[in-house]
Amino acid sequence: MTVGTLHNDRADNRTRRGARATQGTGLTRKQPAARHAAPESAGQRWSRTAVIAMAAVGGPLTVIVFAVLLTAGAFAWQVIQVRDDLEGALDQSKLLAHAAASGDADGIQRSGEDIVARARHAYDTAQGPLWDLAAEIPAARPNVLAVRDVTEIAQTISSQVLPPLITTMAASSDGSSDGINLKPFLHAGKIIPTVLTSFDEASRIASSMDRTGVLPQISAPVDQLQSLIQQATPVLKTVDAHLPELLRAAGAERPMLYQLMIQTPAEIRATGGGVAQWLVLKVDDGHVDMLSLDTGTDLMYSVLPSVGFDTVNGSLITLPWQTRELYPPELTNWSSNFNMTPNFPTAVELFQATRKWTDKPQFDGSFSIDPIVLAHLLEATGPITLASGETVDAQNAASKLMSEPYERYGVDNAAMDRYFSEISASMFAKLTGRQWDLGSMWNQITRSAGEGRIFAWFDDAGLESLAHQYGLDGTLPKDNQDATQLGIYFNDYSIGKLEYHLSYSQYATCNADDRTITVSMDLHNSITDAIKSGYTLGLRNIDRGIDLRTMMLDVLFFAPPGGEIVSTDPKIGDWWDPTFRDRSGSDHGNPAESRTVLLAEGETRTVSYTVKLPDGDLGPLELRHTPGANDTKVTIDSNCAPLFRSPAGSDNVLLSKIG
User: Do residues 371 and 401 make contact, with C-beta atoms less than 8 angstroms apart?
Assistant: First the structure.
């Protein structure tokens, strides 16, 4: 069979199959089926017309709907971009702070440029036509406009502030890894006016923003920014006004020598606690180095006796007799007692006297902090790890520095000094390591100052004026012009570390008609029998037959200049002997009374005094107390308001814990 024959046979077969399929129907292959040939009904015609109409109209509607969806999607994407840009700028600002603290010029440049670019991109995006369109939708308008304001604020601050800041900080960063670098701040005068201008503009934008219908997620950050600007602006203006003094403090003109005291409230003193250690720091052209870590043990037992000073009967300075009458003799001959007076400059004067005796250069400034300040700083730096593997963090620092070592080492002074010195040196290394957030560190410093745990003294009159302005000078005022200062202070008489377990609160009430004010403190001794170290328990209590866990406190009641203490509670002290007895006197013109108070284990009691205030105009009430190992709640009754001039024209009574 040929190929052609096969092809013809297959064609004949297809013809026969088709004939069989149509056989009996009367239809040929070209005729339609009978059901399609029947006439259309009215319903069928309507349906067919509707289909044709939908085909004609539906195409454009689909395009419109698709376009709307596409536009909405594009706008949503832009919203996400704006969010990501702003959040990215915030993240980069943290990296910028780290780079600035570590003197990383490249990091400063990188982060700064990224922030500027992100803020600009967010602003440009929010100004686009899609945002114009969205702003026309009533439901969306408030939030669209609010987001635009946020991007404008970010653009204003970043574009005006960051370029000169980046240039200055990068130029002043030396890249060194040791010490603390303050150089980026030496040239702040070139930037502050620009910062203030941008803050004013940002505040104007934020203030004019319509908050009606705005989501909290948008308005809350703006409120926070306004609050930060309001807090920062006065400080920046003060820095700008006092920049020459601050530059001198940072060693711009010559190296500066500073003392950093560490007070120990566990052995309480009027300004905080016995000064066990102090760091000697040199600041030269913005760079901070620790020269030495000195201890009272070395100074009083070895150094001063070796140069002929009598640490038992001698006196490093001469005080007015009214002041000498107020304090025990040990105020002026033993370093841990130099701060028995609430006048912090007196403690500095005594330390300066020891420098003269030992032929060492005088300090240009002196600062004081306590273990609670270190605990706060550890919240910013993170924990430190000692050579033994022991960790000191924000939660356990107070106990590690004021209680646990005494139980661990007993009366081994040398072992405790080594332990405390290692912690101090590790803390300084942590600070110089610069792996911390600048904003967080500043917050902890201001927190500590607000609790009255930081004091500062400067030989430079301009800097000392700043310390007074911020309430850091810890002075007893000579008049009541700027403030009317009253306070209750404590000194430990037990020679122990009992006051780690002392807690107290302070409150004041007034009788405006009689011009009197009563200041009281509720005291509580929370020590337990579990505390057994001879270094913690009261050494002086032994010879006096007093329980070793009973606190023996010298309580000092101070009236303002011109005031008169009309009563004290207790009226007379709980203990009398030739050294520890009731005392009366004055310090810098502030009348004062001293009472020895015994506070037994588990006991709670109240001490108080009433003052007849002087006639005439009185500055705002300033209520001080000794900063202790625990937080102190301070309240002033509203009936005191008529007696004192309100600060800044407000109706509030000034409440200060720092003097």
Answer: yes
List the one residue out of 372, 400, 370 whose CA is nearest residue 384. 400
Please give the Cα distance from 485 to 591 (Å, whole number).
Answer: 11
Please count the other Cβ atoms lying within 10 Å of the Cβ belonging to residue 521.
21
Residue type, 478: K
Lowest mean pLDDT among 18-32, 41-55, 358-372: 18-32
Q: Measured on CA atoms in the order 516, 521, 522, 525, is the torsion positive or negative?
A: negative
Residue 313, SS3 per DSSP: coil
Position 314 confidence tier, pLDDT thresholds 50, 70, 90: very high
Q: How far apart are CA 333 and CA 394, in angstroms?
A: 34
Encode 279-306: b = buried (16+ Cβ within 10 Å), e = exposed.
bbbbbbbbbbebeebbbbbebbeebbee
- Exposure string of 322-338, with b = 16+ CB inside 10 Å and e = fewer, is ebbebbbeebbbbbbbb
> How many other C-beta atoms are found inside a 10 Å radius of the C-beta of residue 63?
10
Q: Are 333 and 316 in contact (CB under 8 A)?
A: yes
Tell me the percentage of the chain whose pLDDT exceeds 90.
46
Task: Report the C-alpha gap between 16 and 18 in whole angstroms.
Answer: 5
Residue 287 to residues 281, 438, 602, 628: CA-CA distances in angstroms?
10, 17, 49, 32
- Write out the two tokens for 329: 């003799």
Helix (H) or strand (E) holding 134: helix 129-135
570, 607 Cβ separation under 8 angstroms: yes
**What whole-number distance in Å separates Cα of residue 355 and Cα of residue 117?**
54
Examine the pLDDT at 245 and tell me if it is beyond 50. Answer: yes
pTM, two decimals, is 0.75
Q: Are strands 365-369 and 455-458 parallel, antiparallel or unpaired?
A: antiparallel
Residue 391 has pLDDT above 80, yes or no: yes
Strands (E), 94-237: 180-181
Q: Please name the residues in contact with 394: beta carbons below 8 A apart, sequence gap of 6 or more.
A: 375, 376, 378, 379, 383
Which helix (DSSP H) or strand (DSSP E) does residue 516 occupy? Answer: strand 516-525
Q: Report whether the peptide linkage leading into residue 216 is cis, meaning its omega lies within 30 degrees of zero.
A: no
**Which 3-state string (H, E, C) describes 369-429?**
ECHHHHHHHHHHHCCEECCCCCEECCCCHHHHHHCHHHHHHCCCHHHHHHHHHHHHHHHHH
Are 457 and 344 contacting, i.e. CB atoms less than 8 angstroms apart?
Answer: yes
How far, in Å, CA of 378 to CA of 375, rounded? 5
Contacts of 462 (CB under 8 A, 6+ apart): 242, 244, 245, 248
Q: How far apart are alpha carbons 438 and 435 in whole angstroms?
A: 9
Residue pointed to by tokens 């700043």: 466
Cβ proximity of 295 and 421 under 8 Å: yes
Q: Tokens 């419109």 label which residue? A: 64
With beta carbons less than 8 A apart as the criterion, state whether 188 and 289 touch: no
Alpha helix positions (H), 242-319:
243-249, 296-298, 304-306
Q: Are 476 and 603 in contact (CB under 8 A)?
A: no
Are the C-beta atoms of 274 and 334 separated by less than 8 Å?
A: no
What secondary structure letter does DSSP report for 540? T
* CA dist list (Å): 641 to 50, 479, 633: 85, 19, 19
